[in-house]
């Protein structure tokens, strides 16, 4: 019987000088680069989970744009199936990130090509591709 775990997160971004910068987190446990996300708690919807996890991992208070929603699914090393719903979330360009030391080794703001290269997994790269298209259109940024 396969166990399915549900999680939620967001592609967190800011706009500086008409350029989109993406927030990536490096996991302290697995040494991979990814996006803020975490397990859905009982009595929580996906958006509440994303807001809480971003706050826990980065100390940022965020608003979620649910017009963009992408689902990423994969099988974990422990054999569980994981379903993660990602939204996008814009934060002001002067925010200060304070990482959660237990889970996050390091973090950074990266432009789209650098962020895409840094992401460890292809499914997250595809997610970033979609999110970037959406954000460029929404923010009316010249590609």
How would you summarize this macromolecular structure in one to three sentences?
This protein has 143 residues and is α+β, with helices and mostly antiparallel strands. The protein is 27% helix and 38% strand.
Descriptive notes:
It is a single chain. The chain is α+β, with helices and mostly antiparallel strands and 143 residues long. It has one domain (4-139): Nucleoside Triphosphate Pyrophosphohydrolase (Alpha-Beta Complex), CATH 3.90.79. 27% of the residues lie in helices and 38% in strands. The chain has three helices and seven strands; from the N terminus they run E-E-E-E-H-E-E-E-H-H. The chain has helices at 46-58, 112-118, 122-139, and strands spanning 4-16, 19-27, 33-34, 37-39, 65-75, 81-90, 104-110. Helix 2 (112-118) packs antiparallel against helix 3. It is globular, with a radius of gyration of 14 Å. The model has no long low-confidence stretch (mean pLDDT 95).
Write the layout of secondary structure elements.
Elements: E1 4-16, E2 19-27, E3 33-34, E4 37-39, H1 46-58, E5 65-75, E6 81-90, E7 104-110, H2 112-118, H3 122-139
Parallel strand pairs: 1-6
Antiparallel strand pairs: 1-2, 1-4, 2-3, 2-7, 5-6
